[in-house]
Design a protein that fits this description.
By secondary structure, the protein is α+β, with helices and mostly antiparallel strands. It has helices at 18-27, 42-45, 59-68, 86-91, 135-146, 153-166, 223-234; strands at residues 2-7, 31-36, 52-57, 76-80, 109-114, 117-120, 123-126, 130-134, 170-176, 179-180, 183-185, 187-191, 213-218, 246-249, 251-255, 262-264, 267-269, 273-277, 282-287. Helix 5 (135-146) packs across helix 6 and helix 6 (153-166) runs antiparallel to helix 7 (223-234).
């Protein structure tokens, strides 16, 4: 295959360099053209007759590539070399040895990855991951403010525990497919995928190709399970999160409480009211095939 490679060399601490990545692609029998994700020319160049478009980086790089290739015919895939890799985790990619997927590109299966629309402040925006309202939006804001060069694992989960402990529940107005789901909550997360934030499995079996959103309302009763989960992650070990209440729907309307933070795909926005829909927009995505 002839591959368009968009690589963020700084993702995940820069552990995967250009030469190693290029070598692995060539060894698998593919030809390629490569751009840094910081080079604006890649957006136009990837439309030029490639068999596959590859986002090599974290979720930020995946967002950019998937949206650039939205509703096109050329499949896209991921080399998950970021920190959270939420999209890749949802799709079943090996996030420990990401380059293992290269040998299976020719045998992968293409799926239509839903790209829901968020309508806010009179504008519409396609999104890849989803909306964070409350807890995880505040985690994003505070992490950037306190650790501009990126937090360590301990710093991140110390902050998470602090916010879970301090974030007071507030009244969220929520309607899912016309049904009133309003309640007092620490946060409301409208997800297109299963993981959010720092690879937190908020939505369990959430899928981006089933035509539905997963709405996670973090209730006061969820505080203790989240604290247990955060302490385990703070110690650097694996952890299971007790299942949270997840509602599936295609049309979600939210009015956030005053002073609540809201983020769309990790971009903080200044708005309290938004509408999220699953429509016909999608991205053709190649899921991995791993040799047994």
């Amino acid at each position: 295959m002839h591959v368009a490679l968009v690589h963020n060399p700084d993702a995940g601490g820069g552990d995967l360099d250009h030469e190693e990545l290029h070598s692995r692609i060539t060894e698998a029998g593919h030809t390629f053209d490569s751009w840094s994700s910081a080079d604006p020319e890649w957006r136009g160049a990837i439309r030029g007759g490639y068999d596959l478009i590859v986002a090599a980086g974290g979720d930020g790089t995946v967002h950019e590539v998937f949206l650039a290739g939205a509703n096109g015919s050329t499949p896209m895939t991921i080399l998950p070399v970021g920190t959270a890799n939420n999209v890749a985790r949802t799709l079943g990619f090996d996030t420990d040895e990401p380059t293992n997927v290269i040998a299976g590109w020719s045998r992968g299966a293409v799926v239509n990855y839903d790209l829901p629309t968020a309508r806010v402040n009179g504008a519409s925006k396609l999104m890849v991951e989803g909306v964070a309202g409350g807890l995880l939006a505040r985690l994003l804001q505070q992490s950037d403010a306190r650790h501009p060069n990126g937090p360590t694992n301990e710093e991140l989960w110390t902050l998470f525990l602090e916010l879970v402990d301090e974030e007071a529940p507030a009244e969220w107005e929520i309607r899912v497919d016309g049904r009133d789901r309003s309640r007092s909550a620490h946060g409301v997360h409208i997800l297109n995928i299963s993981h959010a934030g720092a690879a937190i499995p908020l939505a369990g079996s959430g899928s981006p190709f089933d035509g539905y959103l997963e709405i996670v309302i973090i209730k006061p009763a969820d505080r203790d399970p989240l604290l247990r989960y955060g302490r385990a992650r703070q110690r650097g070990g694996s952890a299971d999160l007790d299942p949270l209440n997840v509602i599936s729907g295609r049309h979600v309307e939210v009015v956030a409480p005053p002073r609540a933070l809201v983020a769309i795909d990790d971009d903080l926005i200044t708005a309290r009211q938004l509408i999220v829909d699953v429509g016909s927009d999608s991205a053709p995505v190649l899921r991995p095939h791993y040799a047994s």
